[in-house]
Design a protein that fits this description.
single chain
Length: 140
C-alpha cells in the first residue's frame, strides 16, 4: 500500500493538525536551535511533550535534559535565555527547529578565550584530512 493512500499519514504530513510524534522516539524528539537573525545553528537538544508545551506557553526555549533527567529552561542558571520566535516541525512531526533570539552571550556551557559562554555549541569543524578538530574563528 502506498503511504499516500493512508489517511493518517496524509493528515500527519499534509494536514494542519499539530500532532508531535513523541511515542515514535521513546518520548523525546530532537530540536535544532537556530538564531533567527543570522540563521546560525546554535545547539541541538531534546524535548518531551512537557518541554514543548512550556516552550509554547512561555515563549522561552525549554528542553528535556538527558544528563540531568529533568525539564530545563535555557537561561535559568546562566541568564542566557532564548526567546522562541518560530517553531518549525518536520514532515512527519518528529523533529523540530526553534528559531530564537538570544537574550545573553550564547547557548554553550563552554567558554571562549575571553571567559564568556560561547554563542553556539558548534564552534569546531572536522579536518577530514587529519582527522582532527579545528576551532572556527570569528563565529557570528
Amino acid at each position: 500500500m502506498n503511504l499516500k493512500d493512508n489517511p493518517k499519514v496524509m493528515e500527519l504530513e499534509e494536514g494542519i493538525a499539530f500532532e508531535p510524534q513523541f511515542d515514535k522516539r521513546g518520548g523525546l524528539l530532537p530540536v535544532a536551535v537556530q538564531e533567527t537573525s543570522t540563521g546560525q545553528l546554535l545547539m541541538l537538544a531534546s524535548i518531551n511533550a512537557e518541554a514543548l508545551h512550556k516552550t509554547i506557553q512561555t515563549g522561552l526555549a525549554t528542553f528535556w535534559s538527558t544528563s540531568r533527567n529533568t525539564l530545563w529552561v535555557k537561561g535559568e542558571t546562566s541568564g542566557d535565555f532564548l526567546t522562541v520566535d518560530t517553531i518549525l516541525v518536520d514532515c512527519d512531526q518528529d523533529a523540530f527547529v526553534y528559531q530564537v533570539t538570544l537574550q545573553g552571550d550564547g547557548v554553550c556551557h563552554t567558554y571562549d578565550k575571553q571567559g564568556k559562554h560561547r554563542k553556539a555549541c558548534f564552534y569546531r569543524n572536522v579536518d577530514t584530512k587529519n582527522n582532527t578538530l579545528q576551532f572556527i574563528e570569528n563565529l557570528k
